[in-house]
Design goal:
The protein is built from five helices and 14 strands. By secondary structure, the protein is an alpha+beta fold. Strand 12 and strand 13 form a beta hairpin. The longest helix is centred in the N-terminal third of the chain and has 19 residues, at about 35-50. It is globular, with a radius of gyration of 19 Å.
Length: about 230
Protein backbone atom coordinates (compact mmCIF):
# COMPACT_ATOMS: atom_id res chain seq x y z
CA UNK A 1 0.00 0.00 0.00
CA UNK A 2 1.32 3.45 -0.90
CA UNK A 3 1.71 5.94 1.90
CA UNK A 4 -0.56 8.96 1.63
CA UNK A 5 2.41 11.13 2.58
CA UNK A 6 4.62 9.93 -0.25
CA UNK A 7 5.02 13.06 -2.44
CA UNK A 8 5.94 11.03 -5.51
CA UNK A 9 2.55 9.32 -5.60
CA UNK A 10 0.25 11.76 -3.87
CA UNK A 11 -0.22 13.86 -7.01
CA UNK A 12 -0.64 11.14 -9.64
CA UNK A 13 -1.62 7.46 -9.90
CA UNK A 14 0.61 6.91 -12.94
CA UNK A 15 3.18 4.07 -12.68
CA UNK A 16 6.89 4.78 -12.56
CA UNK A 17 9.90 3.07 -14.17
CA UNK A 18 9.87 0.22 -11.63
CA UNK A 19 6.26 -0.68 -12.43
CA UNK A 20 6.44 -0.66 -16.24
CA UNK A 21 7.76 -3.50 -18.45
CA UNK A 22 11.42 -3.20 -19.48
CA UNK A 23 10.84 -4.87 -22.85
CA UNK A 24 8.15 -5.99 -25.25
CA UNK A 25 9.92 -9.34 -25.50
CA UNK A 26 11.29 -8.95 -29.01
CA UNK A 27 14.85 -9.83 -29.94
CA UNK A 28 17.46 -7.36 -31.12
CA UNK A 29 16.99 -7.25 -34.90
CA UNK A 30 20.64 -7.53 -35.94
CA UNK A 31 23.93 -8.37 -34.27
CA UNK A 32 25.46 -4.97 -35.04
CA UNK A 33 23.07 -2.95 -32.87
CA UNK A 34 24.76 -3.60 -29.53
CA UNK A 35 28.34 -2.94 -30.74
CA UNK A 36 27.09 0.23 -32.42
CA UNK A 37 25.48 1.47 -29.20
CA UNK A 38 28.62 0.69 -27.19
CA UNK A 39 30.77 2.52 -29.72
CA UNK A 40 28.62 5.66 -29.46
CA UNK A 41 28.54 5.58 -25.66
CA UNK A 42 32.23 4.78 -25.13
CA UNK A 43 33.52 7.52 -27.42
CA UNK A 44 31.24 10.33 -26.18
CA UNK A 45 31.60 9.61 -22.46
CA UNK A 46 34.59 11.98 -21.94
CA UNK A 47 32.56 14.79 -23.56
CA UNK A 48 29.57 14.13 -21.32
CA UNK A 49 31.77 14.05 -18.22
CA UNK A 50 33.02 17.52 -19.13
CA UNK A 51 29.50 18.79 -19.76
CA UNK A 52 28.14 17.17 -16.58
CA UNK A 53 30.93 17.04 -13.97
CA UNK A 54 28.36 15.98 -11.38
CA UNK A 55 27.30 13.05 -13.57
CA UNK A 56 23.80 14.39 -14.17
CA UNK A 57 22.94 12.70 -17.45
CA UNK A 58 21.38 9.50 -18.75
CA UNK A 59 22.13 7.36 -21.80
CA UNK A 60 19.57 4.84 -22.98
CA UNK A 61 20.39 1.86 -25.18
CA UNK A 62 17.21 0.03 -26.23
CA UNK A 63 15.59 1.61 -23.17
CA UNK A 64 11.86 2.26 -23.40
CA UNK A 65 10.63 5.86 -23.34
CA UNK A 66 7.09 5.73 -22.00
CA UNK A 67 4.89 8.49 -23.38
CA UNK A 68 1.34 7.27 -22.66
CA UNK A 69 -0.53 4.60 -20.68
CA UNK A 70 -1.84 1.69 -22.74
CA UNK A 71 -2.89 -1.92 -22.30
CA UNK A 72 -0.49 -3.65 -22.49
CA UNK A 73 1.79 -0.90 -21.11
CA UNK A 74 4.70 -1.50 -23.50
CA UNK A 75 2.54 -0.36 -26.43
CA UNK A 76 2.84 3.13 -24.96
CA UNK A 77 6.62 3.21 -25.29
CA UNK A 78 9.24 3.76 -27.96
CA UNK A 79 12.71 2.31 -27.44
CA UNK A 80 15.35 4.22 -29.41
CA UNK A 81 18.47 2.22 -30.12
CA UNK A 82 20.42 5.05 -28.47
CA UNK A 83 19.44 8.29 -26.75
CA UNK A 84 20.91 10.90 -24.42
CA UNK A 85 19.22 13.12 -21.83
CA UNK A 86 21.12 15.83 -20.00
CA UNK A 87 20.49 17.30 -16.56
CA UNK A 88 18.85 14.24 -15.06
CA UNK A 89 20.33 11.99 -12.34
CA UNK A 90 21.89 8.71 -13.49
CA UNK A 91 19.79 6.89 -10.89
CA UNK A 92 16.12 7.49 -10.14
CA UNK A 93 15.06 7.21 -6.51
CA UNK A 94 18.34 5.39 -5.93
CA UNK A 95 17.65 2.76 -8.59
CA UNK A 96 18.97 2.12 -12.08
CA UNK A 97 16.37 3.20 -14.61
CA UNK A 98 14.41 0.35 -16.16
CA UNK A 99 12.74 2.80 -18.53
CA UNK A 100 12.47 6.55 -19.11
CA UNK A 101 9.00 7.72 -18.13
CA UNK A 102 8.11 11.13 -19.53
CA UNK A 103 5.38 11.85 -17.01
CA UNK A 104 7.95 11.38 -14.22
CA UNK A 105 11.00 12.93 -15.87
CA UNK A 106 9.68 15.91 -17.90
CA UNK A 107 13.02 16.52 -19.69
CA UNK A 108 13.03 15.25 -23.26
CA UNK A 109 16.09 13.54 -24.76
CA UNK A 110 18.43 15.84 -26.66
CA UNK A 111 19.02 13.19 -29.31
CA UNK A 112 17.43 9.86 -30.22
CA UNK A 113 18.94 7.46 -32.76
CA UNK A 114 17.34 4.56 -34.58
CA UNK A 115 19.36 1.85 -36.32
CA UNK A 116 17.47 0.59 -39.37
CA UNK A 117 17.15 -3.17 -39.77
CA UNK A 118 14.45 -3.27 -42.46
CA UNK A 119 13.74 -0.84 -45.27
CA UNK A 120 13.58 2.25 -43.05
CA UNK A 121 9.84 2.76 -43.39
CA UNK A 122 9.23 2.05 -39.68
CA UNK A 123 11.66 4.78 -38.62
CA UNK A 124 10.11 7.28 -41.06
CA UNK A 125 6.46 6.43 -40.34
CA UNK A 126 4.45 9.62 -39.75
CA UNK A 127 1.13 7.90 -38.98
CA UNK A 128 -0.46 9.85 -36.08
CA UNK A 129 -0.29 8.03 -32.73
CA UNK A 130 1.43 5.01 -34.29
CA UNK A 131 4.43 5.92 -36.44
CA UNK A 132 7.85 6.30 -34.86
CA UNK A 133 8.65 9.54 -36.67
CA UNK A 134 5.33 11.07 -35.57
CA UNK A 135 5.74 9.97 -31.95
CA UNK A 136 9.26 11.37 -31.69
CA UNK A 137 8.28 14.63 -33.40
CA UNK A 138 4.92 15.26 -31.78
CA UNK A 139 5.20 13.64 -28.34
CA UNK A 140 8.70 12.73 -27.12
CA UNK A 141 10.36 15.80 -28.72
CA UNK A 142 14.07 14.93 -28.89
CA UNK A 143 15.77 18.01 -30.33
CA UNK A 144 17.58 15.74 -32.82
CA UNK A 145 16.41 12.49 -34.41
CA UNK A 146 18.82 10.33 -36.40
CA UNK A 147 18.06 7.41 -38.72
CA UNK A 148 21.14 5.28 -39.37
CA UNK A 149 21.25 2.67 -42.14
CA UNK A 150 24.38 0.54 -42.05
CA UNK A 151 23.48 -1.19 -45.33
CA UNK A 152 23.40 2.18 -47.09
CA UNK A 153 26.34 3.66 -45.14
CA UNK A 154 24.15 6.66 -44.38
CA UNK A 155 22.53 8.63 -41.59
CA UNK A 156 19.71 11.18 -41.77
CA UNK A 157 19.57 13.75 -38.99
CA UNK A 158 16.51 15.84 -38.24
CA UNK A 159 16.29 18.86 -35.96
CA UNK A 160 13.09 19.88 -34.19
CA UNK A 161 12.35 23.42 -35.38
CA UNK A 162 9.02 25.06 -34.67
CA UNK A 163 7.52 21.76 -33.55
CA UNK A 164 8.44 19.89 -36.74
CA UNK A 165 11.49 17.91 -37.81
CA UNK A 166 13.60 19.54 -40.50
CA UNK A 167 16.14 17.40 -42.37
CA UNK A 168 19.63 18.79 -41.79
CA UNK A 169 22.21 19.21 -44.51
CA UNK A 170 25.64 17.72 -43.85
CA UNK A 171 28.60 20.06 -43.42
CA UNK A 172 31.72 20.07 -45.59
CA UNK A 173 32.98 16.95 -43.79
CA UNK A 174 29.75 15.07 -44.40
CA UNK A 175 28.87 15.35 -40.69
CA UNK A 176 25.91 16.74 -38.78
CA UNK A 177 26.75 19.21 -35.98
CA UNK A 178 25.01 18.62 -32.66
CA UNK A 179 26.21 21.93 -31.30
CA UNK A 180 24.66 21.66 -27.85
CA UNK A 181 26.88 18.64 -27.29
CA UNK A 182 29.86 20.14 -29.06
CA UNK A 183 30.08 17.17 -31.44
CA UNK A 184 29.32 16.09 -34.98
CA UNK A 185 27.67 12.87 -36.06
CA UNK A 186 28.58 10.97 -39.20
CA UNK A 187 29.68 7.75 -40.87
CA UNK A 188 33.14 6.24 -40.28
CA UNK A 189 34.36 3.33 -42.37
CA UNK A 190 36.62 1.18 -40.22
CA UNK A 191 37.09 -1.85 -38.00
CA UNK A 192 35.36 -2.06 -34.64
CA UNK A 193 34.91 -5.28 -32.66
CA UNK A 194 36.43 -7.29 -35.50
CA UNK A 195 34.02 -5.99 -38.15
CA UNK A 196 34.77 -3.50 -40.90
CA UNK A 197 31.59 -1.53 -41.49
CA UNK A 198 30.33 2.02 -42.02
CA UNK A 199 29.86 2.74 -38.30
CA UNK A 200 27.97 5.70 -36.84
CA UNK A 201 30.44 7.85 -34.89
CA UNK A 202 31.12 11.19 -33.21
CA UNK A 203 33.67 13.89 -34.08
CA UNK A 204 34.40 17.15 -32.29
CA UNK A 205 33.43 20.42 -33.99
CA UNK A 206 36.92 20.69 -35.49
CA UNK A 207 36.49 17.35 -37.24
CA UNK A 208 38.60 15.18 -34.93
CA UNK A 209 37.26 11.67 -34.40
CA UNK A 210 36.23 10.94 -30.80
CA UNK A 211 38.09 7.80 -29.81
CA UNK A 212 36.99 4.88 -27.70
CA UNK A 213 38.94 3.93 -24.59
CA UNK A 214 40.74 1.15 -26.47
CA UNK A 215 41.61 3.48 -29.34
CA UNK A 216 43.03 6.06 -26.93
CA UNK A 217 45.11 3.36 -25.26
CA UNK A 218 46.37 2.08 -28.63
CA UNK A 219 47.32 5.61 -29.69
CA UNK A 220 49.23 6.18 -26.46
CA UNK A 221 51.06 2.87 -26.91
CA UNK A 222 52.05 3.83 -30.46
CA UNK A 223 53.27 7.25 -29.29
CA UNK A 224 55.40 5.69 -26.54
CA UNK A 225 56.91 3.18 -28.93
CA UNK A 226 57.72 5.95 -31.39
CA UNK A 227 59.78 7.49 -28.56
CA UNK A 228 61.53 4.20 -27.90
CA UNK A 229 59.56 3.46 -24.74
CA UNK A 230 58.02 0.03 -24.38
CA UNK A 231 54.72 0.25 -22.45
CA UNK A 232 54.35 -1.93 -19.40
CA UNK A 233 52.22 -5.00 -19.86
Amino acid sequence: MTSATDPSTALTPFPDHTQLPESNGTFVKNWQEHPQSILLTDSITPVLKQLHPEGEYCIGQDLGIYWRLTDPPERGAEAPDWFYVGNVPPLLDGQTRRSYVLWREFIAPLIALEFVSGDGSEERDKTPWQGKFWIYEQVIHPAFYGIYEVNKASVEVYELIGGQYQLLAANERGHYPITRLGVELGIWQGVYQNAELPWLRWWDLQGNLLLTGDERADRLTAQLRSLGVEPEA
